[in-house]
């Protein structure tokens, strides 16, 4: 099988598998949709939930409407051109963003986030690097949300709280990590050993969920054509939007729809 | 619209800050840093004996239950045990073993173990309390080894004042 000429083809044979799947969908061979659905649904729903702050039921509904309207009815995957240098995952993300934007326009619901939010910047203005970063965020948010839900389902919300207050938020925001005393008080625990055990388990579980989100362990292949090494490359490229002058950011905000 | 949660911050924070969450397993920082040691130690002293010793490995659980059944008033916390004028040597021995066990777990890479500095302190304090208050040696340490341990302990800036005073007294008696 020929390897697809997609950029960043670091996964080798895996890309060929994905290429075969994409080509099958381009030929309306819908049996290939099952694998696509399994890999793309979690990060795309997370993207809708956290980037656009949709309630989970709305995010699921938008995703399934997109699947039906765009993937199955309009067969937009036929428009994907392997030779144009755009990653397939970014092609899908752009299509989903545009679909959501069109949906909200029809429903006159374009003020979902804060006024200075750039969430609804037109998707076509996004570079491949912007889209790569959105994917990285979606994968991270998928793993974090899974951990939170995992502990909520087990009636152990304190485990998420310990991870959130000790590791997650301090890494994300630079905030002070909660002390052992604060965690004991907030979670009704009795000793540092109890906190340590819960924190270590939560950290390990998060790492497991993250690896499973990035790599579909069951299928033994990366999820949406992304892997840890590629994510590291994305980080090394940085996020130019956080280094632009304030005037440029204000100009962006004034152009919000 | 959903209320913002901590997970929303993934979308509002500087992108470069996300990297450390992807590579937690490579992070050289453990669960706790030295800045946490004073708080860890303070709360270790406040921790109920039953919570830690009753949940330890079987040998420690059995020894703890045996020490409790031996009679006398059983203190509730580690701190209360160390503060007693005439503490149970059997209980101090269990605490010493618990400190050793935690230290060993940390040395073997168990990430959920207490920091080795804190568990070593627990070990040393139980040995010293037995020596100073009960005139019993419960550690296999010779004086030279105990001196070395006490010198290390007294060098720890995070140690609380009452424990420091106790260890200083013990160190003086060894000279």
Structure at a glance:
Helix content of chain A is 64%, strand content 2%. Chain A is built from ten helices and two strands. Chain A has helices at residues 13-26, 33-51, 56-73, 88-107, 128-153, 157-173, 180-187, 192-214, 228-237, 246-254, and strands spanning 215-216, 221-222.
Structure description:
The complex is a heterodimer of chains A (257) and B (175). In chain A, strands 1-2 form a two-stranded antiparallel sheet. In chain A, strand 1 and strand 2 (221-222) form a beta hairpin. In chain A, helix 3 packs across helix 4, helix 4 (88-107) crosses helix 5 and helix 5 runs antiparallel to helix 6 (157-173). With 257 residues, chain A is mostly helical. The model of chain A is unreliable at 1-16 and 241-257 (pLDDT under 50). Chain A has 10 helices and 2 strands. By secondary structure, chain B is mainly alpha-helical. Chain B has one domain. Helices cover 58% and strands 0% of the residues of chain B. Chain B has helices at residues 19-22, 37-46, 49-53, 58-69, 78-83, 89-107, 116-134, 143-154, 161-174. The termini of chain B are far apart. Chains A and B meet through helix 2, helix 5, helix 6, helix 7 and helix 8 of A and helix 1 and helix 2 of B.
């Amino acid at each position: 099988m020929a390897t697809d000429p997609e950029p960043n083809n670091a996964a080798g044979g895996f890309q060929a598998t994905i290429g075969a799947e994409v080509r099958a969908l381009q030929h309306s061979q819908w049996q290939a949709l099952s694998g696509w659905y399994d890999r793309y649904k979690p990060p795309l729903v997370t993207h809708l939930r956290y980037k656009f702050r949709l309630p989970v039921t709305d995010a699921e509904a938008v995703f399934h409407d997109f699947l039906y309207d765009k993937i199955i009815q309009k067969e937009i995957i036929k428009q994907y051109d392997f030779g144009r240098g755009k990653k397939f995952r970014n092609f899908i993300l752009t299509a989903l963003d545009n679909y959501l934007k069109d949906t909200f326009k029809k429903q006159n619901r374009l003020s979902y986030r804060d006024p200075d939010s750039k969430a609804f910047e037109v998707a076509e203005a996004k570079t491949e690097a912007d889209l790569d970063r959105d994917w990285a965020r979606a994968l991270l948010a998928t793993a974090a949300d899974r951990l939170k839900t995992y502990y909520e389902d087990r009636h152990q919300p304190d485990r998420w709280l310990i991870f959130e207050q000790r590791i997650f938020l301090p890494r994300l925001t630079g905030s002070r990590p909660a002390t052992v005393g604060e965690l004991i008080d907030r979670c009704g625990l009795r000793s540092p050993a109890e906190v340590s055990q819960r924190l270590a388990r939560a950290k390990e579980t998060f790492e497991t969920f993250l690896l499973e989100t990035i790599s579909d362990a069951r299928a033994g292949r990366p999820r949406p054509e992304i892997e840890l090494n590629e994510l590291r490359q994305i980080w090394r490229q940085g996020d130019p939007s956080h280094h632009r002058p304030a005037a440029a950011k204000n100009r962006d905000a004034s152009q919000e729809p | 619209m959903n209320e913002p949660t901590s997970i929303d911050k993934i979308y509002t924070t500087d992108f470069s800050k996300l990297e450390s969450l992807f590579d937690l397993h490579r992070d050289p920082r453990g669960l706790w840093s030295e800045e946490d040691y004073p708080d860890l130690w303070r709360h270790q002293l406040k921790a109920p004996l039953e919570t830690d010793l009753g949940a330890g490995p079987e040998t420690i659980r059995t020894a703890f239950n045996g020490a409790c059944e031996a009679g006398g008033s059983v203190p509730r916390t580690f701190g209360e045990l160390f503060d007693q004028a005439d503490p149970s040597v059997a209980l101090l021995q269990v605490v010493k073993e618990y400190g050793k066990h935690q230290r060993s777990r940390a040395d073997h890479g168990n990430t959920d173990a207490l920091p080795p500095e804190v568990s070593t302190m627990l070990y040393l304090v139980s040995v010293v309390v037995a020596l100073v208050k009960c005139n019993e040696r419960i550690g296999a340490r010779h004086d030279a080894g105990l001196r070395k341990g006490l010198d290390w302990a007294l060098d720890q800036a995070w140690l609380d004042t009452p424990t420091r005073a106790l260890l200083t007294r013990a160190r003086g008696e060894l000279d």
